[in-house]
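User: Please fill in residues for this 154-position structure.
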């Protein structure tokens, strides 16, 4: 069961990386052409994959460091769209309750904006690199039974 769950989690991880790359490509195209429907779809998929990665990783029994990197990747993927939405919601609510001049000239709500555009992507990259390191180590590690088979052959 653990092996199947690990494989499913790894598939979600790779899908998350693919969607992140597609998300970046669509952002570049959005800047050039202005289409938002694909951007919203990719953000939704990205968020759901991040949530699935966190849930699957939390259920697995594996080394703590490995869990931390996978959870960092999933939580930051979940956080990017959530913080982007919260940025707009908080900005709108403050204007609604305190008036349009609350932020001053050219002011904006910076906390969720910085979390969505700087902090979460950096955490995503750190988590991704750490997760890939653990996946590569696991792929190249010898199974425990191989050492016994080599000793009995000699």
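Assistant: Residues filled in for all 154 positions:
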């Amino acid at each position: 069961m653990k092996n199947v769950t690990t494989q499913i989690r790894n598939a979600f991880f790779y899908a998350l990386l693919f969607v992140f790359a597609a998300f970046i490509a669509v952002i570049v195209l959005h800047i050039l052409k202005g289409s938002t429907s694909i951007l919203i779809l990719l953000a939704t998929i990205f968020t759901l994959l991040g949530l699935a990665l966190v849930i699957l990783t939390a259920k697995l029994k594996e080394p703590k460091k490995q869990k931390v990197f996978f959870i960092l990747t999933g939580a930051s993927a979940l956080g990017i769209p959530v913080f982007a939405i919260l940025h707009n919601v908080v900005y709108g609510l403050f204007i609604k309750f305190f008036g349009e001049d609350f932020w001053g000239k050219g002011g904006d709500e910076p906390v969720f904006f910085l979390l969505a555009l700087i902090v979460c992507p950096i955490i995503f990259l750190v988590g991704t690199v750490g997760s890939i390191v653990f996946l590569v180590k696991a792929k190249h590690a010898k199974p425990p039974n191989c050492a016994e088979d080599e000793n009995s052959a000699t």
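For context: Residues 95 and 104 are 11 Å apart (CA to CA).
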